[in-house]
Protein backbone atom coordinates (compact mmCIF):
# COMPACT_ATOMS: atom_id res chain seq x y z
CA UNK A 1 0.00 0.00 0.00
CA UNK A 2 1.19 3.50 -0.79
CA UNK A 3 -0.27 6.70 0.60
CA UNK A 4 0.09 10.10 -0.97
CA UNK A 5 -1.80 13.35 -1.38
CA UNK A 6 -3.25 13.92 -4.82
CA UNK A 7 -4.77 17.30 -5.62
CA UNK A 8 -5.07 17.98 -1.90
CA UNK A 9 -6.82 14.69 -1.13
CA UNK A 10 -5.18 11.89 0.87
CA UNK A 11 -5.27 8.65 -1.13
CA UNK A 12 -4.00 5.14 -0.47
CA UNK A 13 -3.24 2.82 -3.37
CA UNK A 14 -3.54 -0.91 -2.73
CA UNK A 15 -1.36 -1.68 -5.75
CA UNK A 16 1.99 -3.26 -6.50
CA UNK A 17 4.60 -0.66 -5.40
CA UNK A 18 6.21 -1.03 -8.83
CA UNK A 19 3.08 0.36 -10.52
CA UNK A 20 3.93 3.50 -12.48
CA UNK A 21 2.25 6.59 -11.07
CA UNK A 22 0.61 7.18 -14.47
CA UNK A 23 -1.46 3.99 -14.19
CA UNK A 24 -2.31 4.55 -10.53
CA UNK A 25 -3.64 7.97 -11.51
CA UNK A 26 -5.51 6.91 -14.63
CA UNK A 27 -6.82 3.45 -13.67
CA UNK A 28 -7.18 3.60 -9.88
CA UNK A 29 -7.79 7.29 -9.15
CA UNK A 30 -9.75 7.99 -12.37
CA UNK A 31 -7.58 11.03 -13.10
CA UNK A 32 -7.12 10.74 -16.84
CA UNK A 33 -5.61 14.16 -17.52
CA UNK A 34 -2.10 12.67 -17.55
CA UNK A 35 -1.74 11.06 -20.97
CA UNK A 36 -0.01 7.87 -22.11
CA UNK A 37 2.43 8.66 -24.88
CA UNK A 38 5.84 7.05 -25.20
CA UNK A 39 5.91 5.16 -21.87
CA UNK A 40 9.65 5.83 -21.74
CA UNK A 41 10.01 9.25 -20.13
CA UNK A 42 10.63 11.06 -23.39
CA UNK A 43 7.44 12.76 -24.60
CA UNK A 44 6.19 14.45 -21.42
CA UNK A 45 2.51 13.70 -22.11
CA UNK A 46 2.22 12.07 -18.67
CA UNK A 47 3.81 14.96 -16.76
CA UNK A 48 2.45 15.73 -13.29
CA UNK A 49 3.87 17.76 -10.41
CA UNK A 50 5.35 15.80 -7.51
CA UNK A 51 6.55 17.79 -4.51
CA UNK A 52 6.62 20.93 -6.68
CA UNK A 53 8.70 19.40 -9.48
CA UNK A 54 7.50 18.28 -12.90
CA UNK A 55 7.98 14.54 -13.35
CA UNK A 56 6.98 12.06 -16.03
CA UNK A 57 4.50 9.82 -14.24
CA UNK A 58 5.17 6.86 -16.55
CA UNK A 59 8.72 6.69 -15.22
CA UNK A 60 8.15 6.74 -11.48
CA UNK A 61 6.85 3.88 -9.34
CA UNK A 62 4.28 4.66 -6.68
CA UNK A 63 6.39 2.80 -4.13
CA UNK A 64 8.87 5.68 -4.19
CA UNK A 65 6.16 8.24 -3.54
CA UNK A 66 5.06 7.45 0.01
CA UNK A 67 3.89 10.74 1.53
CA UNK A 68 4.39 12.70 -1.70
CA UNK A 69 2.21 15.60 -2.81
CA UNK A 70 1.02 15.12 -6.37
CA UNK A 71 -0.77 17.65 -8.54
CA UNK A 72 -2.41 16.62 -11.78
CA UNK A 73 -4.05 18.87 -14.36
CA UNK A 74 -7.39 18.23 -12.63
CA UNK A 75 -6.05 19.82 -9.45
CA UNK A 76 -3.84 22.62 -10.76
CA UNK A 77 -6.64 25.10 -10.22
CA UNK A 78 -10.23 24.02 -9.55
CA UNK A 79 -11.47 27.19 -11.28
CA UNK A 80 -8.92 26.99 -14.13
CA UNK A 81 -7.57 30.31 -12.96
CA UNK A 82 -3.86 29.48 -12.84
CA UNK A 83 -2.03 32.19 -14.82
CA UNK A 84 -0.82 29.71 -17.42
CA UNK A 85 -4.36 28.36 -17.93
CA UNK A 86 -5.67 31.91 -18.36
CA UNK A 87 -2.87 32.77 -20.77
CA UNK A 88 -3.42 29.49 -22.64
CA UNK A 89 -6.99 30.53 -23.38
CA UNK A 90 -6.09 34.13 -24.27
CA UNK A 91 -3.43 33.02 -26.74
CA UNK A 92 -5.66 30.21 -28.07
CA UNK A 93 -2.82 27.74 -27.73
CA UNK A 94 -4.87 24.55 -27.86
CA UNK A 95 -4.81 22.25 -30.83
CA UNK A 96 -5.48 18.51 -30.43
CA UNK A 97 -4.85 18.84 -26.71
CA UNK A 98 -3.07 15.54 -26.17
CA UNK A 99 0.20 17.00 -24.93
CA UNK A 100 -1.34 19.99 -23.19
CA UNK A 101 -1.98 18.74 -19.64
CA UNK A 102 1.68 17.73 -19.46
CA UNK A 103 2.95 20.93 -21.04
CA UNK A 104 0.81 23.10 -18.77
CA UNK A 105 2.01 21.29 -15.65
CA UNK A 106 5.64 21.49 -16.78
CA UNK A 107 5.20 25.24 -17.27
CA UNK A 108 3.39 25.64 -13.95
CA UNK A 109 6.31 23.97 -12.16
CA UNK A 110 8.77 26.15 -14.08
CA UNK A 111 6.89 29.35 -13.22
CA UNK A 112 6.71 28.30 -9.57
CA UNK A 113 10.49 27.90 -9.50
CA UNK A 114 11.10 31.00 -11.59
CA UNK A 115 8.24 33.38 -12.48
CA UNK A 116 10.48 35.00 -15.09
CA UNK A 117 11.85 32.07 -17.07
CA UNK A 118 14.39 32.76 -19.76
CA UNK A 119 13.89 31.78 -23.39
CA UNK A 120 16.45 29.03 -22.85
CA UNK A 121 14.52 27.62 -19.89
CA UNK A 122 11.27 27.57 -21.88
CA UNK A 123 12.96 25.95 -24.86
CA UNK A 124 14.52 23.35 -22.54
CA UNK A 125 11.10 21.99 -21.54
CA UNK A 126 11.28 18.36 -22.68
CA UNK A 127 7.61 18.03 -23.65
CA UNK A 128 6.90 17.07 -27.26
CA UNK A 129 3.97 18.47 -29.25
CA UNK A 130 3.18 17.08 -32.67
CA UNK A 131 0.73 19.89 -33.45
CA UNK A 132 3.14 22.80 -33.31
CA UNK A 133 1.88 24.83 -30.36
CA UNK A 134 5.40 26.12 -29.69
CA UNK A 135 5.13 29.81 -30.72
CA UNK A 136 1.75 30.37 -29.04
CA UNK A 137 2.88 28.39 -26.01
CA UNK A 138 5.83 30.76 -25.64
CA UNK A 139 3.52 33.76 -25.78
CA UNK A 140 1.29 32.16 -23.17
CA UNK A 141 4.26 31.63 -20.87
CA UNK A 142 5.19 35.28 -21.32
CA UNK A 143 1.63 36.37 -20.50
CA UNK A 144 1.53 34.17 -17.42
CA UNK A 145 4.93 35.45 -16.36
CA UNK A 146 3.74 39.04 -16.67
CA UNK A 147 0.58 38.26 -14.69
CA UNK A 148 2.66 36.67 -11.92
CA UNK A 149 5.27 39.41 -11.77
CA UNK A 150 3.02 42.44 -12.05
CA UNK A 151 3.86 43.03 -15.69
CA UNK A 152 7.44 44.10 -15.10
CA UNK A 153 9.14 41.09 -16.65
CA UNK A 154 12.20 42.01 -18.70
CA UNK A 155 12.01 38.76 -20.62
CA UNK A 156 12.23 39.41 -24.37
CA UNK A 157 9.30 37.13 -25.13
CA UNK A 158 7.20 38.99 -22.59
CA UNK A 159 7.89 42.28 -24.35
CA UNK A 160 6.97 40.70 -27.67
CA UNK A 161 3.74 39.28 -26.23
CA UNK A 162 2.81 42.61 -24.71
CA UNK A 163 3.06 44.20 -28.14
CA UNK A 164 0.85 41.60 -29.80
CA UNK A 165 -2.93 41.23 -29.64
CA UNK A 166 -4.35 37.79 -28.84
CA UNK A 167 -4.06 35.35 -31.74
CA UNK A 168 -6.89 35.86 -34.23
CA UNK A 169 -9.17 32.92 -34.82
CA UNK A 170 -8.07 32.47 -38.42
CA UNK A 171 -4.44 32.17 -37.30
CA UNK A 172 -5.08 29.33 -34.88
CA UNK A 173 -4.42 26.38 -37.11
CA UNK A 174 -0.89 25.38 -37.93
CA UNK A 175 -1.82 24.90 -41.60
CA UNK A 176 -2.93 28.53 -41.81
CA UNK A 177 -6.59 27.69 -42.30
CA UNK A 178 -9.46 28.82 -40.14
CA UNK A 179 -12.20 26.80 -38.48
CA UNK A 180 -14.64 28.19 -41.03
CA UNK A 181 -12.50 27.13 -43.99
CA UNK A 182 -12.42 23.48 -42.96
CA UNK A 183 -14.58 21.19 -45.12
CA UNK A 184 -18.10 21.18 -43.62
CA UNK A 185 -19.18 17.85 -42.10
CA UNK A 186 -21.99 17.34 -44.64
CA UNK A 187 -19.53 17.74 -47.49
CA UNK A 188 -17.16 15.19 -45.94
CA UNK A 189 -20.06 12.74 -45.73
CA UNK A 190 -20.77 13.35 -49.43
CA UNK A 191 -17.12 12.75 -50.32
CA UNK A 192 -17.05 9.51 -48.37
CA UNK A 193 -20.12 8.05 -50.01
S1 LIG B 1 4.29 8.74 -21.61
FE1 LIG B 1 5.56 9.40 -20.01
S2 LIG B 1 7.09 10.59 -20.97
FE2 LIG B 1 5.91 9.80 -22.61
S1 LIG C 1 -1.57 20.02 -29.15
FE1 LIG C 1 -1.55 18.13 -30.22
S2 LIG C 1 0.19 17.09 -29.47
FE2 LIG C 1 0.35 19.07 -28.64
Structure characterization notes:
This protein has a five-stranded mixed beta sheet, with helices on both faces. It has helices spanning 21-28, 83-90, 100-113, 119-123, 134-149, 156-163, 185-192, and strands at 2-6, 9-13, 47-50, 53-56, 69-71. Strand 1 (2-6) and strand 2 (9-13) form a beta hairpin. The model is unreliable at 173-193 (pLDDT under 50). It is α+β, with helices and mostly antiparallel strands and 193 residues long. 35% of the residues lie in helices and 11% in strands. The N and C termini lie far apart (55 Å). It has one domain (2-163): Ubiquitin-like (UB roll) (Roll).
Topology:
Blueprint: E1 2-6, E2 9-13, H1 21-28, E3 47-50, E4 53-56, E5 69-71, H2 83-90, H3 100-113, H4 119-123, H5 134-149, H6 156-163, H7 185-192
The structure holds FE2/S2 (inorganic) cluster (2 copies).
One FE2/S2 (inorganic) cluster (FES) binds at residues 36-39, 41-46, 56, 58.
List keywords for this structure.
Ubiquitin-like (UB roll); 193 residues; five-stranded mixed β-sheet; 35% helix; binds FE2/S2 (inorganic) cluster; alpha+beta
The helix content is 25-40%
Look at the structure and give the mean pLDDT. 86
Which ligands are bound?
FE2/S2 (inorganic) cluster
Q: What is the CATH topology classification name?
A: Ubiquitin-like (UB roll)
Percent range for β-strand residues: 5-15%
Main structural class:
alpha+beta
> What low-confidence regions span 5 or more consecutive residues with pLDDT below 50?
173-193
Strand order of the largest sheet: 2-1-5-3-4
Oligomer: single chain
Mind telling me the C-alpha Rg?
Answer: 19 Å
How many domains is the backbone divided into? 1
Would you report the number of β strands?
5
Order of SSEs, N→C?
EEHEEEHHHHHH
Give the full name of the CATH homologous superfamily.
Beta-grasp domain
The span between the termini is 55 Å
Q: What is the helix tally?
A: 7
Biggest sheet layout: 5 strands, mixed
Gross morphology is globular
Question: Briefly, what CATH class?
Answer: Alpha Beta
Amino acid sequence: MTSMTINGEALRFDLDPATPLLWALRDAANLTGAKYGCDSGECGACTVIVDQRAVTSCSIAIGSLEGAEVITIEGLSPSRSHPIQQAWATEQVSQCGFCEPGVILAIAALLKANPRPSDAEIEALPNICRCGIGPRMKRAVARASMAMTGGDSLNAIAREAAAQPPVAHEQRFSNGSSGESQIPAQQINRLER
